[in-house]
Design brief:
The longest helix is centred in the first third of the chain and has 41 residues. The chain starts with 5 loop residues before the first helix and ends with a helix. The protein is mainly alpha-helical. It contains 11 helices and no strands. About 80% of the residues lie in helices and about 0% in strands.
């Protein structure tokens, strides 16, 4: 049997180590780049205020839940032959509606109020469209005085676009009974964040004009305006559908109120 002498084995080990060293360094560099990118993406997302988007979504989801509950109760009432008196003014109807809205709130609490979804969605879009250096440019800009004011303006318009989507498609009724708390909360949040006109803004913060007119800043503004806004709206719509699906299986829970109305 042929054997390899110790010096030859040592030389082979050294050559192998030399060959693997660049690969290890490359892997280490790549891992560091990924860590730096994640840190920059996190800083971009954490710089934003989600209040307006969440308030708009909350208002729409409450109205969506009310309409779904009333629609289901109306159908169940017709199936039970309860007649026209089975409506929103009947005490038993209101009691049954309260049960369904409580169930709707539970779905919203899981799918919407636990706001990790908005951070995850935002992070996915930033990470997917920007490299680490670009994300760092955006995050760093939002830490400047002018950048903070500009970021507040972007957050305002993002919330407005979510609201416009539901208002323009006739899915909001500002007079719908039962959604007053969410409407007032949205109005309060908006009132506190209304942009203040400042004709000297660009002269005081010239970097803000550069940020939104070219490079990573322009690309970021476009991302917020179309794909990210669309993703946030899709999630809100998904929650709305989940609420209606959940309520549609709750007839047994409200049957006692239908029976009590019929037995009057």
């Amino acid at each position: 049997m042929l054997t390899t002498s110790p010096p030859v084995r040592l030389l082979a080990a050294i050559l192998l180590a030399c060959a693997l060293l660049p690969m290890a360094r490359a892997a280490g560099d790549l891992a560091e780049q990924e860590r730096n990118k994640k840190d920059a993406v996190d800083r971009v997302v954490e710089s934003h205020d989600f209040t307006m988007v969440l308030a708009a979504g909350r208002f729409y989801l409450k109205q969506s839940a009310i309409k779904a509950a009333q629609r289901l109760l109306g159908q169940w009432g017709r199936d039970a032959g309860l007649g026209l008196a089975w409506n929103e003014d009947a005490a038993q109807f209101q009691q049954a509606e309260a049960v369904l809205l409580d169930r709707a709130s539970a779905v919203a609490a899981r799918r919407f109020e636990q706001t990790m979804w908005i951070k995850e969605t935002w992070s996915q879009y930033v990470a997917g469209q920007f490299n680490g250096e670009e994300a760092d440019v955006i995050a760093t800009h939002f830490q400047t005085e002018g950048g903070q004011l500009q970021r507040k303006l972007l957050d305002w318009y993002l919330g407005e676009m979510v609201m416009f989507n539901y208002a323009f498609t006739d899915r909001l009724d500002y007079n719908l009974r039962g959604s007053e708390p969410e409407r007032l909360a949205l109005q309060k949040a908006a009132q506190q964040r209304i942009p203040v006109e400042d004709i000297e803004f660009v002269s005081k913060y010239p970097e803000t004009l550069n940020f939104v007119s070219r490079g990573a800043g322009l690309k970021y503004a476009k991302m917020l305006a179309i794909p990210l806004t669309g993703a946030l709206i899709r999630h809100i719509d998904d929650v709305s559908r989940a609420i209606e699906a959940d309520l549609s299986g709750r007839r047994a829970e409200v049957q006692p109120y239908l029976d009590a109305f019929k037995a009057r």
